[in-house]
Structure formats: structure tokens, C-alpha cells
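#struct-queue
[09:14] JT: dropping the first one here, sequence first, then the C-alpha cells:
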Amino acid sequence: MAGFKNNAAKTSIFLLLFVIISFFGIPQKPPSNNPPKVTRVYVENADSTELEQNNNPNIYVLRGNVIFRHDSTYMYCDSAYLNNLSNSLEAFDNVRIEQGDTLFIYGDYLNYYGDTRLAKMRENVKMEDKEVTLFTDYFDYDRNKNLAYYFNGGMLIDSVNELTSVYGQYSPDTKIAFFKDSVRLVNPQFVLTSDTLNYHTKTKIATITGPTVIESDSGLVYSDRGWYNTITEESMLYDRSTVLSKDKTKTITADSLAYNKQEGFVEAFGDMILNDTVKKIIIMGDYGYYDEKNDFAFATDSAQMIEYSSDSIFLHADTLLMKTIDSTREIRAYYGVRFFRTDLQGVCDSMLYNTSDSLLKLYKNPILWNESYQLTGDTIKILFNDSTIERLNVLNYSFALQEIDSTYYNQLKGRNLTAYFDAGEIYQMIMEGNGEAIYYDLDKDATPLELSKSAASFITFMIKQRKIARIKWEPESTMDVIPIPDLTPDVKFLKDFVDYNYLRPKNKEDIFAKTVMRTGDIPPPRRARSRSRQE
């Protein structure tokens, strides 16, 4: 579990990073209630200056190496109109705005309004702010808010990513860009598409605020809210986000996901659902994780597994593990295992399922039900052919009972039991070692007529239409036959008989029922026996 601890620690770092980014990593200007003082736009240079054609005394035409200054901002162009009355200008060709020594804006045409400090640049616009470059044809720059934005398509590029959208804005102060409508972030390792996105050009962290897809060679990410570090490819995703594995066969969804794409590790918080579409297995829990590199999954806290083949099995346990070894899938369940399938139900302390041999193993006080049959022992192994039960083995202290009604039970007891199935129903049971049997002869209405009791090293029940059709003993056994009127309670049941039907899952929802074995029904501690040849 060392890897799990390390990754859990990384998740805590993710959360801490998110808090830091939220509260400290995005500097904000304090709001000001005082609008900036209105100042005049000045002409610093022009090769020629003249009044406009109509001799309007407020409008001047300037040509050649034109330079304007407004406060600390300089504007350059080939020619311009200056309107002294409105304190505005129009600039043409080779237009450039310089603000300080970091912000430069280029374009073919500019409208600038000195009173509102608003610049409208058009055609072939390029804005440079240190490592950030923005391209568009429709660009407005609000100097009061120090906010630049485009509204008819544009692109922002930095040292790592290329972002495009229909609408975008950028703050040179906070280094935060906002994008809306057809947003696309292209990174050498992945492509992000979204409806809306915030991007911090300093930290290279994209904050997801709308439906978003992140696609790469490592899989897909779907999220409506969260953040994604485009350098480390670590992320924290909220609101039922989903990660699709590299081979496109597994998805993991949860209320929150801590995802490290480079390590292929996803940690899930709240209503996790891991779906393997190839093996047709779903694993759920309130907490879990998936390690793609090692193909290892973990789920706990209301953990559930669904195997959705032709006849689905629903299983609940405290903890579930799923891993792949040499293309073999192995599933383990621990503590309070309960499962339901239409033809098979069971409870036990722990369980192991292996896809290489299609073998399901139940450990520690396992109880299995099939139709009217109940089987118990130290260990139960169930062999499937595809999804159909083919055979099961009950190892050590085996006990099988079949309920005829609430009073009468056919019983078979011994060391090891093998049961064979056809179309989901038992048709043969073989007890090996110290076999004991109680069974009833029935009339045509299935009413018990007499009880037969026998013992032998090997006992075989042949079953047809859920009734015992034939019995074989090896070696031959003596038999006691008792008519029903002569039955006494002490002869109706073999030693260790317990009807555990009160523990039986009744449906797929009942696997979550809190059931406890009655104190008097708990099997006593048993000395380990040598392994049988069936083990």
C-alpha cells in the first residue's frame, strides 16, 4: 500500500495547491471608487500636421512618424486623426501601443478615447506581455481596468500552450486569461476543448468552469469544474467528472477526482464508479482509486461490484480490489461480503475471483444458496463457463441442505462436496469423506412420507426437477427408514444443521442489508484439515 499512501499524500498537495491558487495565486486589484482623472492626449511627434479638410479647428490630420502620449502610454502610427474636442484619435497603419516596458500592442487600425482610456485595435492585432502573445482582428483594451479582450475569435500563446476561442480576455496585472465559446487549448501532450475556461499564464493552470474534454494519448477527461496543471498534468476535478483510460476500456467517475495523468493515477472521492467495458465489471464505493500503469483498482466504504454479463452478479463488501496480472483479471472482496444473482446468492468474510480460470472462491464461514439449496463449509469454489455455473466445490466441513418446507429438509454432510449444474440448477451432488445423509420420500404432491438416514464414505445424489431421483453409496451403506408419524426432533436433523436463510440476500438491493449471524449459529473453531485432492 506504499504507492497508495504516496498518491494519497499527493492528493492532499493537490488540495492545498488549489487553496493557494484560489486565495493567494491570483492577485487582485482592490476596487476603487474614484475614477481616474481625465488627462489630455498629446502629440509627441508628426512629420506633418494640418487641419481636417472642412477646416474643423478641433480635428487635425497627422502624417509620418506619428507619436501620441497619454499619461505613461505611447501610441505610434503612420497617420492619424486627432480630435481635441472629444480627446480621441484614429490611427492608421503600423499602429503600436506601448505601456511601460512589458506591454506592446500592434495592429492596422486604432480608435483611442482619452476620456475613457479605451483603445479599440482592429486588423492583424498582436499583443505582447512578456511570455504571453495574443492574436486577433478585433481587440479592445480598457486601460482603466488594465483588461484586454477580443470578441470575434482570437488566440493566446505562451511558452507552453496555445489557446483559441471566440471570446477572450486577458489581465496583464493578474496574468489571468478568460475564454468563452469554442475554447481550445493545445499542449504538446494533450488537447483541451471547453465552453468556458480560466487560464493563469504564470502558473500554467487551467481552471475549468464549463463542460470540458481533455484528450491525449493517455485517455480522456470529462469535467465541468476543476483545475488542470498543464505542466505537471496534475488536476482536481469536481461535479461528477470522468477519466477514460488509455486503452479506452475503463472509465472512473466520482464527485471529485484527483488525477495525475503522467503517473496514470486517479483518486476518487464520493460515489465512485469504475466501469471496465471489456471485462463487463463495475466497481463502486464512496472512496477509491485506479492505478492505470499497474491496472489496479481499489474501492471502500459501501463498496459494490456488478459483473454485468448475461446474468449479472451484484456484490457488496467493505473493501474491493481489482488487479491485472499477465492479462488475468483478479477481484478480491474483504469483510462482510454479500452477493446476489438470480440463480446464486451468498455471504462470506472474503472472496476471490480470477478470470483466467473463471473461478470464484469464498472464504471464512461462506454460505451459498441456489434455488432451495443451502451449502456451507470452510471454503467454497464456484467454476463458471462464461457466466453460467458449471461446478462448485465445498471444502472441509461441507453441509448441504434442501428445504422441502419450513419443517423438512434433505441434508448431506461430510468432508468435501462437489455439485454439478445444468442451466443454473444442481443436478448432481457428490460427498467425499465421512458422508451422512437425510432425505425424504415424497408423494406426488411433494408431501413427505418417510425419512431415510444413511452414512458412507462417498454419497452421490442424482437430482431431477429439484427432487432426489437416485442415491448411490460407496461402499454400500445400511439405512434407517422412519415413517413421518414416528419422527422425533432429534432425528430430523444432522449434527451442525443450521438454516441460515435469514442471512440470504433477497435481491440486488438487499446486498447492503446489515445482517449478523446469530451467536448460536456461528460455527465453532475447527482444526485445519489436510487439503483434499479437489483443493
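[09:21] JT: and here's the second one, same format:
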Amino acid sequence: MKTELLAPAGDIEAGYAALYYGADAVYLGLQKFSARATAANFDEESLNDFTGYAHALGRQVYVTVNTLLQTAEMPDLLNTLNACVTAGVDAVIVQDLGVARVIKESYPELVLHASTQMAVHNLAGALALKEIGFERVVLARELTFEEIRQIKEKAGVEIEVFVHGALCYSYSGLCLFSSLTTGKSANRGKCLYPCRACFKDDAGRQAHLFSMKDLALSEDVLKMPGVSLKIEGRKKNALYVAAVTDYYRTILDGKGVDPLKEERLKQIFARPWTKLHTNGKNKNVTDPDFVGHRGLPVGKVDSVVKGVLTFKPTHALERYDGIQMDVPGQEKPYGFSLEKMRVQGRFVFKAEAGRRVEIILPPNAPFIRPGTPVYLASSSAVKGAYPYEKPKPGSYAPRQPADVSVRIETHKITVSAKDVSVERAGLFEAAHAPEKVSQAVRKAFEKTGYTPFVLRDLTIHNPAGLFVPASLLNDMRRSLYAQMPVDTITRTLPEVTPIQHAKTPRVSVKTDDAACLALLDLNRIDEVIIMLSLNGEDAALRQLPRNKVRLALPAVCRHPAAFEKRIQSLLAQGYKKWEIGHVWGLSVLPRKGIDLSFDSSIYMMNPQAVEMAKKMGASRVTFSAEDTLENMKLLVQSSPLPMVLPVYTDPPLFISANCVRENDCRACDHQPRQSYIHANGQTYLILSQDCQTTVYADKPLSFIEEARDIHPDFIRADFVGKTYTPARVREIMTAVLSGQSLPGAMKGNLTRGL
């Protein structure tokens, strides 16, 4: 593929701005099932208008249907996909495997792109998605240029990478932080960004540990030819989209970084910029002291005396521009609009660059130290720097062909199309120029205007050569087109055949430390799941009955090849039961001869997703930790595979490629390190190991009592991530086996909804 500049559009105005300033393609969301649920998004009419206009310019349109859907929502998915087909969009961006199945089975004309919410972070994951029908994979943001290059060369699918915009601390799609703490799920487009909060550690230090800088690859985008270069920003306005698209279009056109365009972009919206890990491991990726938009640095405070701030700006300032300053002790920069400013003692509307300016501070302004950086955060001049053109509403909407018949008789005229007829009585006489009557009829009915129709075929029956006034023809045309039905798309959900589920659930335990199971009576446990690592668990495995062991691969693995030799050795030893936490595992395990389980990080919230898992080789699947009681009950009733319910678990709130350690990477021992942090009355555990950061809530999730209402085929207790003693494991398993509740545990979204 050619290098593609892909711009965001949270509404149609942002879309028009993106096209005007050089986007090759635009991605957007509809009113439902978009990972930016709080953006304005598009309705069907604006989707039709915009897609038609983009196609007229030779550009592409991709629609995001990239959230997880619960069982009861699946019928509504059909309306969304119908709209995509009607508009003729070029691809649909998907996270949910159930949505992917519906598209493959019922909407084969739609092209599948794998959302970054699928957390594809290695070649194995891209290959697995290619096999089930994805034509493009949006890679995780955490990858290096070398990793991107290898995936592009070997995966055999189109590759899309983010090059600019907001970043998540977690691998996208593997974050449950907002969901499990607030009920607002990132996987449902409603993230409340609790990661950007200020956290305190046990030593009393406070910082925004997980508040990411903004990604900005700038000229480094030229290192990735032949991929789609994606700009984040569906919650940004048309001005931002115009500026950021123009900035990267200039670079891709070989003109380099335009300093003026970069300054304008930073004035419109910018946190501090980072290139993340594209050039290798980078620890300078967060902004620990402040959150939010900064702006363009334009100088430093000289003095603040009696409510008057003095400094020498490097750029011109105008009245009503917005400036900001970082004030210690405040999470967000302190900012205000320039209402009053003086140069040489005189109030001015504009202060030229390089001239000392005096700014009257608002009442109750915080203490501002000399030397504090000043940022231009909003510029009146920049707001007018990005005009754009757009078509008249409806002028590019898709049209359906209309075959019209016109019959002219002495006492009436009848026009018809699509089983609709319009008749007008009258007395019609012979025309002076019969040959012009047909021309007049055609001219009238070709004027379809903003109707959803375009004239395809016109049949005229006028054997007597009668004359008809143009005004009457126009009136009949308007009446006919107003009454004609619009053809609608009718599709159905693919069939799913539920299985007969077990009356009594089997019991399993999962751990990354087999020693914690020492006090368990394994005769009461049907299965033991051991999380594999590269360090090896051979000694622990020898202590367990092989027929009860299932081996699990982690959700994140940057180098799957490192596991392959170990996997082959274990297969040769007779271990045939496996579990995967991400689709990458499908590419390193054999397709036949094993019993394969999908863990909860491969999200299963609807029967279509379970059916797709079955097609991919799963023999059973696991409920999502963020699901609700109501949906779990519905899913069991409709699932085509056995269902596993983790009744005791510590699900990662997020998994990150970013490191919280302050030491130099070259001096790191990569050994596990645990610490605690606190925010908003909650305590969290940080596990740092092998350049990966995982955060857990201090309290586990427990669905022990609710399992009786859900009726899963398996119940499972997880002892992964956190440290568990054998005594504590025995205590928890006693409660699990007896169906007793555990005090102090969380219920997540079980009853509060999602």
C-alpha cells in the first residue's frame, strides 16, 4: 500500500477540515459502538454526505465500530452496519470478535480493520488476525520502528500506526482501570481517565505517575513508508484536525517540519511531546507534575508586582489570547484570557514579540514565581488561520437508481416508479414541436435535487405527441420522488447454536506461583492452570498431576519466539491443555491435538464472539472481568462453548510497556518489584518486572455467591500477579468450594451496570 495519512473526525466539520488539509483517509464513529462515545460522532445522514464527498475527492472513509458489545446489543449492531453499507464506507475498525464474525458472515462487502483496542503488539498477533479475515491491523502504540518494520514485512496485511495525539499508559484494550473503579469502560468508549490522577506513594511523594505526554513523531513518520499514519483526536475540534493534518501533510510531501505550523499546533492543543518507544526504550514519557493542555512556550515571567505580571514574549500577543503557567501545587496549569495588557504604560490590543508587556492578573490569581514559563495556550490569530471548504448538505449523499415511466394521454398524465404512481388529469393538446416534449420530460425528471434518487432509465409513452407544461412535469416529479420508497438493507445475525451447559461447575485454580498451592487438596480441584514465564516452571510442574495441568500464555509478549522452544518442549512432554490471553498465542500453538481455552483478556461479551472463538479453535472461553451479572446470565444461555467464571481474581487494571522505576535501564535487574500507591481513598499495587508495569487494585473481585445465578461450566480462582501465601490460598479456596462470600472483595460492574 502507499503511505496513507489518516486523520480523525469527531464530527462532520472536522472531517471536512481533514480532507481540505490533505488527509488521504478519515476515520470516524457513529452514534453507537464507538470508542469515543463522548465525541459528537456522525449520524446516518452526515455519514452519507461525508462519505460521498470524500469518495468524490478520491479519499477513503473508515468507521469505528470498536467497542465491546453485550448480548442484548447485538441486534442494534445491524443498524450500524447497514448504515456503513449504505454509505459505502471503505472499512470498519473492530475490536469485538463478535462484531468481526457478524461482518464476515452477514456483511462480506465490508472490509475489516483490527482496532488498536485489540492490542496487537507482535507479529504473531497480526498473523492470527489475518487468518480470520482482517485486512489491516492497527498496531499497539508501544512498538519500536524495528518491530513495526518486521510486522509490515512478514504479516501480509496492511499496517496502521499512530503518529500523533493522546496516549494511554496501558496497552489499549487491556485497561480495566476506569471500568472497574467507576463503571465507565474504556472498552465501551466511556473512559474517565483515572490514570491521569495524582498518586501518592508510601513515602509521601505525589506525582501523576501515569499521565502520558502526547505522541508526536514529526519527521520520523518518514521512517515508515507504506503504512497508514494515524492521527489521534476524535474528541478534538475542526481547528485542531486542520492544523495537525496540515502539519503532517507538509512533512509527507517532502517539505520538512514547518516551524510556524508546529507552533500553531501547539497553541491549539498540546501536552508535552514524546516519541514514546519508537526509537527504543524511553522512560521520559509521562508528565508527572501537571496534566492537560500547555500551549506554546513564549517566555518566562520577569516579575509579579501588585497584581501585574511582566515578561518579554517571543511571539506577538493579542487581547483575548489565552496564556497559561505551571504553578507548583496545582494539577493543571493556571490560565486566563488576556483582558488587560500594557506596553510602556499604555493599554494595548496587541503586544509585539520582543517587547516587554505588563499583564493585569485576574483577581485571586495564585502566587507566580519569577522565571515561571509562560505558554500561549489560545491564539486569536491562529483560530482564523485554517479556513476550509465544504459542500452543500446532501449534495454528495449516495443515490439509488430510479427507473421512471411517463405516460401522456389526452385526458391525463401518469408517472410511475418503484410501484408508486402519480396521476394528473387535464386536457392535453398536440405539441407544435413534438420532438421537444421528450427533451422537456427528461430535463424535468433528471432534477433529482437532494432526494435519495438519481434517474437511471426514463420511458416515455406519448404516441400522439401531446404537449405538457414544464411546471406540471416538475410538480409531478417532486410528488413522485417524495413518495418513492428508499431501498433498505436487511441482514440478520449469523446463527449460533447454544450447547447444554453443565449443571454443576467444575473447579480450577490459576497461578503464576505453584508454591502457593502447597496446602490445597488437589483431589477437590479439577484443574490447575500455570501461567508460563520465560524463567521456567519445570520443577513446579513435576509436582503436579499432569492430567490436571493447563499451561497459560500471557496477554502481552513482545518476543513470542522466545516462548516457542519452551512450548515445543512442553508439548513433547504431553501437555495438551493450554490457555491464551491474547490471539498471538494462536500463532505459536498447534491448531490440532490440544485443548485450548481463551482467558478473560480475549473479551467474550456476546454469543457471536464465542462463536468466533470456537471457529478460532477455542474449546472454552472465559467471562470478562468487567461484565455484568445480567449479561453473564444471558451469555451462558446462548453460548456455543463452555464458559469459565473467575469467581476470585485480581484482574490487572492495566498492563503497560512503560516503566515506573527511576533507575537507569542499563542498571536494572529486571526482577519483580512491588510498591503501593494511593489516590482518591483507594490503594493500588504496582508490579514492575522485565520492563513491564502492571497495576492492581488492593482488593480482589469476588463473584462466589453470584456464580449460583450465572451457572457457568467452570468456576476459577486466580492467584496471579499478587503474592499469596499457601495459608491464604487455602482460606480463599475453602470459601470458593463452599460458596461463601469473602469480606472486603469488590463486585466490579456486576450489578451497577457497564
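[09:30] RK: nice, looked through the second one.
[09:31] RK: The chain has a mean pLDDT of 94.
[09:31] JT: good to know. The longest strand covers residues 296-305.
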